[in-house]
UniProtKB/TrEMBL annotation:
InterPro entries: Acyl_CoA_acyltransferase, GNAT_dom. PANTHER family: BLL6696 PROTEIN (PTHR43610), N-ACETYLTRANSFERASE DOMAIN-CONTAINING PROTEIN (PTHR43610:SF1). The keyword Ubl conjugation does not apply. Its EC number is 2.-.-.-. The keyword Transferase applies. GO terms for molecular function: transferase activity. Pfam families: Acetyltransf_3. It is an enzyme of class 2 (transferase). It comes from the Bacteria. This is GNAT family protein. Keywords: Transferase. Residues 16-182 form the N-acetyltransferase domain.
């Protein structure tokens, strides 16, 4: 099956609903993730990428979210509250590669079902669309995100040195992980088992 970028759509889970992020939802997203705590781990280029006002966040969002070439999702709880964002993107159909990242959650949902279910839903989108490898990555200094990626069942591939420019002008090393289509059934089963514990 040839890999094809999945059409952006709303995806219903048990604990969250992923919907394509729109500019209209950015004020809600700012309420959810517009805190120094979220940017401290490397999101948006790190602490220097943080914007303390909605106006500043909207400027940041215009340059950060590549909505035209990536599937950028907003995550909502059953009560309708928007609690963060994650992206399925960097589609390379010829090599069957995709990337899940650009993830930021409200601190109020850290350690809940939100992250594992979001990743379960997006991995399903990627593998159902014919992709054979999904990359996940984090700033090498971000031990919290790195632990969360490993907990998903991804395999550590290594460190890409001096890989990306941070918002403060320093260079970050990137820890790279992946999940292959052959590993997906086991990864999916583990994620479903984790989610069952939240019911």
């Amino acid at each position: 099956m040839a890999a094809t970028r999945p059409a952006p759509r709303t995806i219903e889970g048990r604990f969250i609903r992923l919907e394509p992020l729109t500019r209209d939802a950015l004020p809600e997203l700012f309420v959810a993730i517009g805190t120094p705590e979220v940017f401290a781990g490397g999101y948006g280029g790190g602490p220097a990428g943080y914007r303390s006002t909605l106006e500043g966040f909207l400027e940041f969002a215009d340059g950060y979210y590549a909505l035209e070439r990536n599937n950028v999702y907003a995550a909502r709880l059953p009560d309708g509250r928007l609690v963060g964002t994650s992206t399925l993107g960097d589609f390379d159909e010829a090599r069957e590669h995709a990337h899940i990242g650009w993830t930021a959650w409200s601190p109020s949902v850290w350690g809940t079902a939100v992250n594992p279910e979001a990743k379960l839903l997006m991995l399903g989108e990627a593998f159902d669309a014919g992709f054979g490898r999904v990359k996940l990555q984090a700033d090498a200094l971000n031990s919290r995100s790195r632990a969360a990626i490993l907990k998903l069942g991804a395999t550590f591939e290594g460190i890409v040195r001096r890989d990306q420019l941070r918002a403060d002008g320093s260079w970050r090393d990137t820890a790279v992980y992946s999940i292959l289509v052959d590993e997906w059934p086991e990864v999916r089963a583990r994620l479903e088992e984790r989610l069952a514990a939240f019911e």
